[in-house]
Design brief:
The complex is a heterodimer of chains A (113) and B (114). With 113 residues, chain A is mainly beta. Chain A contains no helices and 10 strands. Chain A starts with 9 loop residues before the first strand and ends with a strand. Chain B is globular. Classes of the chains: A mainly beta (113), B mainly beta (114).
Chain lengths: 113, 114
């Protein structure tokens, strides 16, 4: 099956800077996308989601952008904090099949003091 | 409200041994899922359930069986463990209905097969 991939496996940013994590998806039929954060030794934690009928969605300090033309997602984290250090996964899903999620391989975000 | 819990947290098995991983959720969710996560990779779906008494195969079902006898529990079984099944196993659940697509994950079970 088609899968979601990420452009960069690692990302280091200075504390207080903005972070941008990218994701490419390949299934044009996917209609719902989720970003998860996974801290070491823990399960994935929901950050933000977006439906395919939107191109931008904002949460608290996070923004997700969706470009369906090039099948690209990005997660923007404003004023990155040490607690943001984690692996970030994007996941895609489409209606039917119990909404199975297809995950990318993840990006390790490290926040430098 | 504990959310999604998994038992055990860590287990070591010898090749050929069997075991059952338990996932429990107290959110009355209809859907439950079992994933495995290998080092440096995203999660891959093993099996899932759309309700009590129902199960279905995911992307990597071979070597695993599941049961959903009660709505709140989803069991993952390994009948004859192999080293290739060394992984971290995550359970997730979500409610039924449009606008309820987000899956909520448990803390994981680390399994080492020698």
């Amino acid at each position: 099956g088609e899968s979601v991939g990420l452009h960069l496996p690692t990302l280091s940013v200075q504390e207080g800077d903005n972070s941008i994590i990218n994701c490419a998806y390949s299934n044009s039929a996917s209609d719902y996308f989720i970003w998860y954060k996974q801290e070491s030794g823990k399960g994935p934690q929901f950050i933000i989601d977006i439906r395919s009928n939107m191109d931008k969605r904002q949460g608290q300090r996070v923004t997700v952008l969706l470009n369906k033309t090039v099948k690209h997602l990005s997660l923007q984290i404003a004023a990155t904090q040490p607690g943001d250090s984690a692996v970030y996964f994007c996941a895609e899903t489409l209606s039917g099949s119990a909404r199975q999620l297809t995950f990318g391989s993840g990006t390790q975000l490290t926040v430098l003091p | 409200n504990a959310g999604v819990t998994q038992t055990p947290k860590f287990r070591v098995l010898k090749t050929g041994q069997s075991m059952t991983l338990l996932c429990a959720q107290d959110m009355n969710h209809e859907y439950m899922y079992w994933y495995r996560q290998d080092p440096g990779m995203g999660l891959r779906l093993i099996h899932y359930s759309v309700g009590e008494g129902t199960t279905a195969k995911g992307e990597v079902p071979d070597g695993y069986n599941v049961s959903r006898l009660k709505k709140q529990n989803f069991l993952l079984g390994l009948e004859s463990a192999a080293p290739s099944q060394t992984s971290v196993y995550f359970c997730a659940s979500r409610p039924l209905g449009r606008g309820q697509e987000t899956q909520y994950f448990g803390p994981g079970t680390r399994l080492l097969v020698l």
